[in-house]
């Protein structure tokens, strides 16, 4: 057996994935105000179906979870049907796709909620002068309303229903978004979570909300089809506390005990670093989490190959390079040049321009590749 490499297959949930490249979840704001997945979103995902596993953009589990203009949801039958038309097309193109389940918590604004404040673990605002884009323009972040226990219980049930809808929509699994400063991360982080009840204080208590979410999701999906995303080094949405290492080792150990299908760790620092100590590494997570480990953030072909050949990761997720290079695995396999991803003007919102109109290298150059490597 040859050693694993980026373009060699790997097994996820009993199915062979054709390579170890994962499309990172990328919010692109193309669903429109009704948040229903549409045709150009399907075009975009199908164009990227040469990846071993596609992770959808973050997708709201409930109206309360909304906090991004024109991002999709999975809480109505129209949304579920919209996603189904996308998973059908991705499967027909030979791809596998999981849905990222999202609740923004305090990374939202009352403009998204008919004037009601968004909620979070505690009444602690995001300290970020940049503010947030709302349907009414750019606004400063607000102090969120701390969640009552009934808010927590209702939100956990929203996760359950979203997980049910994701199954009906034909996904190959779900990824619980516990990263990048959104609601679950707001409970894990000891700066944003200042509760003094069962959901705050100790590691066990700060993990409790995620534990309850995992419980309901695992009642809907087999554990092997469920992943979780963590960002132990991230500063995005004002994250990072001095006890980050203990927190994330504790969480990884708990998730390992649940036997979930994969753990997705943003180990790289290219998306912002809290600088509270040494960055956590994939090796540290390897020690406690024994399932499929996905690394992400700032990887290129060579650094991804290194992580896989050293055994530090089983798969690597790519975000920005895949935006402008829809055929990224084919480009890596053939050492084709990459389009630059440095122009973010089309990242968030708009139509097909800067979204589903990037070309495959072979199509653009007319190369007739008789023997495809991927
Ligand atoms: C335009 C854009 C949208 C993103 N949306 C999401 C998202 O919906 N969910 C998420 O977990 N991360 C999101 N991220 C973070 C990416 O998944 C990824 O972690 C980040 O881009 C670093 O990986 P890269 O260096 O390969 O791009 C987003 C990043 C970008 C640039």
Short account of what is shown:
It comes from Alteromonas alba. This protein has helices spanning 39-47, 77-92, 149-168, 183-188, 203-220, 244-258, 282-288, 301-309, 320-324, 328-334, 361-365, and strands at 10-12, 15-17, 21-23, 53-60, 97-102, 119-120, 132-134, 137-139, 145-146, 173-177, 226-230, 262-266, 292-296, 315-318.
**Helix/strand class:** alpha/beta
- Assign the CATH topology: TIM Barrel
The unique ligands bound to this protein are: flavin mononucleotide
CATH class: Alpha Beta
Shape: globular
The description of the largest β-sheet is: 8 strands, parallel, barrel
Straight-line distance between termini? 19 Å
CATH architecture: Alpha-Beta Barrel
Write down the secondary-structure element order: EEEHEHEEEEEHEHHEHEHEHEHHH
Indicate the topology.
Elements: E1 10-12, E2 15-17, E3 21-23, H1 39-47, E4 53-60, H2 77-92, E5 97-102, E6 119-120, E7 132-134, E8 137-139, E9 145-146, H3 149-168, E10 173-177, H4 183-188, H5 203-220, E11 226-230, H6 244-258, E12 262-266, H7 282-288, E13 292-296, H8 301-309, E14 315-318, H9 320-324, H10 328-334, H11 361-365
Parallel strand pairs: 3-4, 3-14, 4-5, 5-10, 6-9, 10-11, 11-12, 12-13, 13-14
Antiparallel strand pairs: 1-2, 7-8
Helix pairs in contact: 1-2, 3-5, 5-6
Residues 24-27, 57-58, 100, 177, 179-180, 229, 266, 270-271, 296-299, 318-320, 347 line the site of flavin mononucleotide.
GO cellular component, one term: cytosol
Pfam families: Oxidored_FMN
Cofactor: FMN
């Amino acid at each position: 057996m040859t050693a694993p490499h980026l373009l060699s297959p790997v097994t996820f949930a009993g199915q062979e994935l054709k390579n170890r490249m994962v499309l990172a979840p990328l919010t692109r704001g193309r669903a429109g105000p009704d948040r229903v997945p549409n045709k150009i979103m399907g075009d975009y995902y199908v164009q990227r179906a040469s990846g071993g596993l596609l992770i959808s953009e973050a997708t709201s589990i409930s109206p309360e979870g909304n906090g991004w203009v024109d991002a999709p949801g999975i809480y109505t039958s129209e949304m579920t049907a919209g996603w189904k038309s996308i998973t059908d097309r991705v499967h027909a193109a030979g791809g596998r796709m999981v849905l990222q389940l999202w609740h923004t918590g305090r990374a939202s604004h009352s403009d998204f909620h008919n004037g009601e404040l968004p909620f979070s673990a505690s009444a602690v605002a995001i300290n970020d002068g940049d503010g947030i884009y709302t349907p009414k323009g750019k606004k400063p972040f607000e102090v969120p309303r701390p969640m009552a226990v009934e808010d927590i219980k209702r939100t956990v049930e929203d996760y359950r229903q979203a997980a049910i809808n994701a199954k009906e929509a034909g996904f190959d699994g779900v990824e619980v978004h516990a990263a990048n400063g959104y609601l679950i991360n707001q409970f894990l982080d000891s700066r944003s979570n200042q509760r003094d009840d069962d959901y705050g204080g100790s590691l066990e208590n700060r993990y409790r909300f995620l534990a309850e979410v995992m419980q309901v999701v695992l009642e809907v999906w087999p554990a092997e089809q469920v992943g979780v995303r963590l960002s132990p080094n991230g500063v995005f949405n004002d994250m990072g506390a001095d006890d980050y290492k203990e927190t994330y080792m504790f969480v990884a150990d708990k998730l390992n005990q649940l036997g979930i299908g994969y753990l997705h760790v943003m180990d790289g620092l290219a998306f912002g670093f809290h600088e509270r100590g040494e960055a956590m590494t994939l090796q540290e997570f390897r020690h406690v989490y024994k399932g499929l480990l996905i690394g992400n953030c700032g990887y290129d072909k060579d650094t991804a190959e290194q992580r896989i050949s050293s055994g530090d990761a089983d798969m690597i997720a790519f975000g920005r390079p895949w935006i402008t290079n829809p055929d990224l695995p084919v480009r890596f396999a053939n050492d084709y040049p990459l389009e630059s991803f440095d122009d973010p003007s089309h990242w968030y919102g708009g139509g097909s321009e800067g979204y589903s109109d990037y070309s495959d290298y072979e199509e653009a150059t007319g190369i007739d590749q008789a023997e495809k490597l991927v």
